[in-house]
Design a protein that fits this description.
9 helices; about 70% helix; Tetracycline Repressor, domain 2; mainly alpha; about 200 residues; about 0% strand
Length: about 200
């Protein structure tokens, strides 16, 4: 009598997300196939599609997982005393580590697909929301302590949008490796503009 076939256990989602993040960072979403990712993970493409539905959904869920990991570090960093110290910690976590930063490559892929997908746009907003909320809380706390100005820069929510737009604009050249764009330079520019915007 033949031995019963053992069923291969499904990979933990964290392992799938980690492999997807690495593959997307190395080759981009366009070159990622469910079959190729499944082979790497010793899973079938059908199994991956069952859980994620599409490459776009896999991208979105991988970014969500990546940002949730960083969110824990962000919340810990924002416990340091002082508004300026908190803003420096926030900036350090926000900006890419350097060219090809896997987290930022995921963001670039998501942004590129947002115009054509309401699902991607909604997911993007949900993933961005904790960054916005933490920055608003940071600015409100700093303003209450007299470290940050509240006028004429506008309410903390508006200033948070302005600062995040600045950080996004500084981050993209670093993430894609434009010549002359460095993390150190981006940090310096972000700090300089924040000082001009927020100093009492």
């Amino acid at each position: 009598m033949a031995e019963p076939r053992t069923r291969r256990a499904a990979r933990p989602r964290e392992e799938v997300y980690a492999a997807a993040r690495a593959a997307i960072a190395d080759h981009g979403l366009a070159k990622l196939t469910m079959a190729g990712l499944g082979k790497q993970l010793q899973m079938s493409a059908g199994h991956l599609l069952y859980y994620f539905g599409s490459k776009d959904q896999l991208l979105l869920e991988t970014l969500r997982w990546s940002e949730e990991q960083l969110g824990e570090r962000r919340r810990a960093a924002l416990q340091v005393p002082g508004g300026w110290a908190q803003l420096a910690a926030y900036t350090e976590l926000y900006l890419p580590e350097g060219p090809g930063d896997p987290r930022w490559i995921l963001w670039l892929e998501v942004w590129g697909r947002s115009p054509a997908s309401a699902e991607i746009r909604q997911g993007q907003l949900e993933i961005e929301a904790p960054w916005q909320a933490d920055l608003v809380a940071l600015l409100e706390s700093g303003a209450a302590a007299g470290e940050f100005t509240t006028d004429p820069a506008g309410p903390p929510a508006d200033r948070a949008v302005q600062l995040r737009a600045l950080l996004d604009g500084l981050a993209v050249p670093v993430a894609i490796g434009l010549p002359g764009a460095t993390r150190a330079q981006a940090t310096q520019h972000a700090t300089s503009v924040a000082r001009a915007l927020l100093s009492v």
